[in-house]
Amino acid sequence: MSSKSQDRIEILTRSLEVSNVIRLKDAADLLGVSEMTVRRDVSAHEGVFTYMGGYITLKSPVAGGLGYILDRERGAHTDLKRAACLVAARQVKPGDTVFLDCGTTIPYLASALPENQDITAICYSINVAEILCKKPGLRVIMLGGMYHASSASFADSHSVQAILKLNINTAFMSAGGVNTSRGVSCSNPHEVDIKQAVLETAARKVLVVDSTKFNVIKPMLFAKLDQFDMICTDPKCDPDLLSHSGLSIATE
């Protein structure tokens, strides 16, 4: 490897340690080379970088950075998340167009969706899309946009506009916190516009959360409880928490 190439790799790595993601065009401008040169550098270091849809990220996000948030939460409360999603999957009917939110709970719903029932699934996160695309007879619409390592999802203003043009029968929404007085919240600012656009356009809105999310408040409020038609959770959820919500609650 030439010294110039090594210098470019070091500059690109330092940039991604701060921003987590960079457009190919912006990387070329940063390094003062062509986009083709950047792609060659990235391809020669597959163990360091990931290139997808015009964006470059680090293969392994910096410990403590935004990407760490998803890794830290992925293995938490697995049984409870799976139980909530099995309940949610029973709400899907043949021929439905459904929206699946991002996060560490919804992949269990993606796994539980029925096959070969003329279902169309809309998503915007890699971990959900990977599961959906392997299911026979399922149409998958993946929203594009800027990649966000904190939730392994793509989201920007173009994603929001695309959602508003779709006919969604049922939207399955995740959350980091559910509070009966304050509302429903998440950790990542980039998710808010996507979630609110889905809540605006979907015919039916289902909140899918495990029991550990109740009485929790995350930084980004995106909805009030009364914006949902149903909550799907696990049997450990305290019914008194939602006794005054007026929502249908499914736990088994």
TrEMBL record:
InterPro entries: Carb_Metab_HTH_regulators (IPR050313), DeoR-like_C (IPR014036), DeoR_HTH (IPR001034), NagB/RpiA_transferase-like (IPR037171), Tscrpt_reg_HTH_DeoR_CS (IPR018356). Transmembrane segments: none annotated. The keyword Protease does not apply. The keyword Transcription regulation applies. SMART domains: DeoRC (SM01134), HTH_DEOR (SM00420). SUPFAM superfamilies: NagB/RpiA/CoA transferase-like (SSF100950). Keywords: DNA-binding, Transcription, Transcription regulation. It comes from the Bacteria. Residues 5-57 form the HTH deoR-type domain. GO terms for molecular function: DNA binding; DNA-binding transcription factor activity. This is DeoR family transcriptional regulator. It comes from Thalassospira profundimaris. The lineage of its organism: Bacteria, Pseudomonadati, Pseudomonadota, Alphaproteobacteria, Rhodospirillales.
